[in-house]
Amino acid sequence: MAGKGRGIGAFTFNVEALGIGRGSMPESRVGPNPLFPNIDFKPVPLKAGEDEDYMLALKQEMRGTMQQLPHHIKAQCNKAEVERYTERYLKQRLIEDQDWSPDWNLLPKELMPKKKKMCAKKETKKKPEKISRKDAEDMLKKLDNLAKTDEGNPEKSDDETEKKPENEEEEIEGEEYDEEDVEEENDYIDSYFDNGEDGAAGSDDNVDGEATY
Amino acid sequence: MTAQEVRLCGLLLREHFGEVVEKVGTHLLRGGAQNLRTIIHETGISLDLVKKSLCVLVQHGACVFSSGRKGPGSPTEYRTSCDRILRILRYPRYIYTAKTLYGDTGELIIEELLQRGHMTMSSTVKTVADRLTQNMEEGRCMDYSEVATAFAKLVETHFLQRCPPMVKAGTTGSATPATPATPGTPAAPVSTAPPTPESFPDCYKVPHMTLVGRGKRQLCSEEGEDQRNAKKARMDSQTHGDEGISWQVNFERFHLHFRDQAIISAVANKCDQTSSEILRTMLRMSEVTTSPTATCTKPLSANEIFRSLPTSYNIARPILDQYLTLLVDDPMEFVGKAGESGGGMYVVNLHTALANLARATLESVVQERFGSRSARIFRLLLRKRHLEQKQVEDFAMIPAKEAKDMLYTLLSQNLVQLQEIPKTPDFAPSRTFYLYTVNQLPTARMLLQNCYKTVANLIERRLFESKESKRLLEKSQRIEAILASLQASGAEPEQLTEVEEMITATEKQQLEALRLHINKLDSAENQVDESIFLIESYVTSTASTS
Lengths: 213, 546
Known about the structure:
The complex is a heterodimer of chains A (213) and B (546).
Chain A: H1 2-9, H2 50-68, H3 85-97, H4 118-151, H5 154-185, H6 187-202, H7 204-212
Helix pairs in contact in A: 4-5, 4-6, 5-6
Chain B: H1 3-17, H2 19-31, E1 34-35, H3 36-43, H4 47-59, E2 63-66, E3 77-80, H5 82-86, H6 91-116, E4 119-120, H7 121-135, H8 144-156, E5 160-162, H9 169-175, H10 223-236, E6 246-249, H11 251-270, H12 273-285, E7 300-301, H13 302-308, H14 317-329, E8 335-339, E9 345-348, H15 350-370, H16 372-384, E10 387-388, H17 389-396, H18 400-412, E11 417-422, E12 432-437, H19 440-468, H20 470-488, H21 493-500, H22 505-545
Antiparallel strand pairs in B: 1-3, 2-3, 4-6, 5-6, 7-9, 8-9, 10-12, 11-12
Helix pairs in contact in B: 1-2, 1-19, 2-4, 6-7, 6-8, 7-8, 11-12, 11-15, 15-16, 15-22, 16-18, 17-18, 19-22, 20-21
């Protein structure tokens, strides 16, 4: 009581003007609200009927089936615990579920599970860069040569330059196909073979190319 | 995206796709668009599992990906949205609606598609036909063509749509044979905006599909066996001409249907059955002509409405006119008058209707939580906009002390706002008007968040309940399995009763109580979602009009 009196007295203006009389102030609050407050009004009962029952059944069925679909991904279980009899069956089912193959046309390529083709992919990743660099170098040199030879005998060089890139392209394509074929058979030989050729392409080939012109 | 939404999404993902997907999903929700490497680094989950989770999320449409946001060649980024994940809560309602509209076939089609995210038409038709055959009596089976027609009907009414094709599908699709998998190097920068399914012209075109035959009945009744067989059947099947075209459920269309249904049932409750039938006819007539975001339907003349009314209703022309004027005069303003020509032009005010329904929801929430007299104050403020404390007491005809108490309670719950208007710039309390008011939209938003929180709490509680009696549940499952296998092998009745008695009476009681609790919690989730739907559509409708 005394506390409340002091509270009102502390205002610098006439509190009565606001329509707040003595005793009409709500009680001051101490501390936060309780986590589970008592409610004055009981909640309304849920709707019950055929529709609701059916939807309830649908919901529970949906949850049940979704948990058995391969879309439900289980965390890797720790094997340290004692293996239980039931787990053997569970695991079997898990293995069965694994073979879910989504339509990869609708998914980004990077999500495709990598299996044995790890090395193969690395190779192919490197390759395009190299080819392009090599191509660019070749092209520059060819252009240089073209400029030089143009002055001499234009007809010959034209023929040659036309032929040359075609050949090279074919070669490159040939390489690619070869590589793929070999890759599937044996990774080891392929990589060895590829490296050797790439090295050659980097150094010797170009020198040769210059020499012919 | 609020904390409540993320929490609920996490729970839904965990329940339907497992904990790994939950981790990835919530991480994406909290962190926005991210690439694969960042996700792996920040969640600490193995590469394989992250990839699988992302596949699952994309498969179910909960995650979109795009590349080249930071210039060409930048890695693919993944983004999820709460909206799509929260739809999981409404799955039972979609399925049930499909059942009421298109029977068991429609129900199963929608169910299959929701379970698997998206599927091709042929595989959907096959699985559904197989499932229907399974449930039919011996000797009868479901024809594929019958299911296919039901599917086509669902597409025709836009309840199903094609999944949007991947943006760069054309380029990479042709390039894949020559250079297998060059990840992260798209040919050209792609626009960052994700394509909407509607933007493709073939969205609702049913492809030609050659699929003859009928549903097959699996001989063995074991579930695991079934799935394997179904899978095998799908594997060795020949092409049906619709490969690569997958279908998904068009949630927007379902929401339009729910909205119409809500309006119709509101009118049925407020006025009577006949007026709701009139409104149903009006809504059906304008289903095709009105765009999904329109504030009201295209005007319909009374003559047109009369002609379209099913004859079974037996509504005479003058009675129709009376009903229409009644509906126009109704304070809920479901129907509005747009003109006088053709016997009067009428529209259905869709957005106003939603706003009024949302307001009614707010009022009933206040009434059920704070009593009818608080609700009176709340309604008073809604109607009169701004009132001083003294006015509230007078208009509500509630004794000053109680009125103050209620008003302050509402204020502390943020259902009522206080607006200060000073007469002088010094905000001196004695020279300031204190006006109480209710802002419908922010209050609705707050209520929506409360609803999300409620559902999350319900799920949490349900998980807790089932965790508490996990042992009991496992035991009863085991015994049921034993019983089933015994019955299949034709065991003696004494044996069966013996096995049955392995569960004691008290355990049975506990199980029964648990079942009751879980049913109640599940049912509550479904029904809270109805409120969520209503408030959500109100909030989105205000966003599209303003």
